[in-house]
UniProtKB/TrEMBL annotation:
Region annotation (Disordered) ranges: 320-340
UniProt domain YHYH: residue ranges: 197-278
Protein name per the record: YHYH protein
Length: 340
């Protein structure tokens, strides 16, 4: 544990100075595209993000590796920032009082103008998400939220902008999730598409699978995200579908974006690079790379892609990467299409 702390501490100052025991694990495979990592540093989680004390348990990974995993219960609510706003109140509401929407093609300010132009945007005259006074139809009760924030949207809530609140969840409380993540990543034989939950943020939120955009748009709804790329559903509470620079550690080393979470295989996840930055770095097919300061880590996709982590190079715990993990009742076996 000490060496892990030392590794991250040294990586914050100057890259060339990390030495001795702190890098022995990484040096063995440093020349490979996927270097070993020193593993999860629980101290990086923000205050309140982890509920209780994580335990270390024996676990078998997807590729058959027998190792140890951290069993971590996360708060299910970002501990370092407020959630929302989500939907605009009227068709003249500005972007500063609303969240965002992304559909796999682009990321958009979910301002009043966007709502007003939905029929044009999606080339379908069935869109009419506001009344004659310009007020946007928003799921502003628990009942409406529960009926609409699901793949099989209640037809009564077509043309609603969907937003939730912790008040609409059971007992008005965040929904915690317990995840099993390898204490140190173990490389897989080949990269795999993440199924189900992809990871956790450092401020206590599940990084979820892609939002089912086709089902959402097919029901003439917008499952609004806040500016951090998260939203509520009744099953999982608040969860993340897009990385926009929230939940980060305080520092980023030279040429890097800051880390904001861990993937289910135990590798760190950093914020997306901008288009300009992407032109100057070489990332592998999973948007990962190995740097001297940070070891192997992923960069999240742009929120526009509606998929935070492109693919996983490490093994995951059976059930954690395929949507079978807790909380029960939310995600169908096999993951996709999952919930909103
Ligand atoms: Zn990087
Ligand atoms: Zn969702």
């Amino acid at each position: 544990m000490l060496s892990v702390v030392a590794f991250f501490a040294s990586s914050c100052s100057s890259p060339g100075t990390s030495s001795d025991a702190t890098t022995t694990e990484a040096s063995a495979t440093a020349t490979q595209s996927v270097a070993a990592s020193t593993g999860i540093d629980l101290t990086l989680f923000k205050a309140g993000a982890v509920v209780g004390d994580p335990s270390t348990v024996d676990c078998t990974l997807s590729g058959g590796a027998e190792t140890t995993c951290y069993e971590i219960t996360i708060s299910g609510y970002p501990t370092d920032h407020e959630v929302g706003p989500f939907c605009p109140e009227t068709i003249t509401t500005g972007a500063d009082k609303a969240g965002i929407w992304f559909d796999g093609e682009g990321v958009y300010d979910l301002d009043g103008e966007f709502i007003a132009n939905l029929a044009e945007k999606y080339n379908d005259s069935g869109w009419q998400m506001y009344d004659e006074n310009g007020n946007v139809f928003v799921t502003d009760t628990a009942e409406a939220f529960e009926a609409a924030a699901r793949p099989d949207v209640d037809p009564a809530y077509q043309n609603y902008c969907i937003e939730g609140s912790v008040d609409y969840l059971e007992n008005g409380e965040p929904i915690t999730s317990t995840v099993l993540i390898p204490t140190s990543p173990v490389a897989a034989a080949a990269p795999s598409e993440p199924q189900g939950n992809q990871g956790v943020t450092l401020d206590g939120v599940i990084i979820a699978a892609s939002a089912p955009v086709d089902a959402i748009l097919g029901a003439y709804t917008i499952a609004s995200f806040d500016d951090c790329g998260g939203h509520f559903n009744p099953f999982e509470g608040y969860h993340l579908h897009g990385a926009t620079g929230c939940s980060e550690t305080g520092t980023a080393s030279e040429g890097e974006t800051a880390m904001f979470g861990y993937a289910m295989d135990g590798y760190p996840v950093h914020s997306p690079y901008s288009e300009a930055e992407l032109a100057n770095v070489q990332l592998d097919e999973c948007n990962g790379h190995t740097t001297e300061a940070e070891g192997y880590h992923y960069h999240a996709n742009s929120a526009a892609k509606n998929q935070v982590i492109q693919c996983l190079v490490g093994q995951t715990v059976a059930g954690e990467g395929d949507g079978g993990g807790p909380p029960a009742g939310g995600v169908p076996a096999g993951g996709a299409p999952g919930n909103n």
